[in-house]
Sequence to fold (217 residues):
Amino acid sequence: MLATLALSNGQLRQFIPFVLLMDSTVMNMGLIGTAIFYEKQEHTIDAILTSPVSADEYLCAKALTAILNSLVNLLFITAAIWLLKAATVGRWAHLPSAIIVVAGLHALLGIALTYGAKDFTAVMLRSVVYMFVIWFPGVFTLFGLIPDTVVPYLLVLPPVSAARMLAVAFSPVPSWQVVFGYTYLLLLCAVLYVGVVHPVPTATRVNPSVGARWSNS
Fold:
């Protein structure tokens, strides 16, 4: 964060949302995907299957860890800006709720990326493809590289909606785009969890089919 000393307040209004977007999206996906893959490699999943831990508890713990990590990073960034610049450059109260939704969704995406991956390279390759195909448009909106007239058509890309939710704390964003972002990403979280991450809603323990999916994929 020492780089912020060389940035003006106007530049920080673009730089900080970029850092928060990167941390709560692709960083979370990579960290969660890596953790679960190596848990499979080290047969940690096998131990979980014999413990009184349900699939929901395991998956929610992963998502909660990602959310808390992003919130802690937000706290450090806020403190650094205040200490180094002796100023605040945004309406920070808007950020925690946005980060909870964005980080939670991308934690679930990180879990989904590990399914069917045969090696660590496959997990990372999927993250890289997501970054180049879907994530970069969100970054481009933060730096004004995409015209405002085009942005509404890109809101179906989760990182673009996430970028608008984070940017509202630092610059004017149409209210409907923020409302759409929250609604859309929360709906994606529900669909992704039920339909992809944990498609056995009635399981109260780690279901054998789910366990096989984790340990053998």
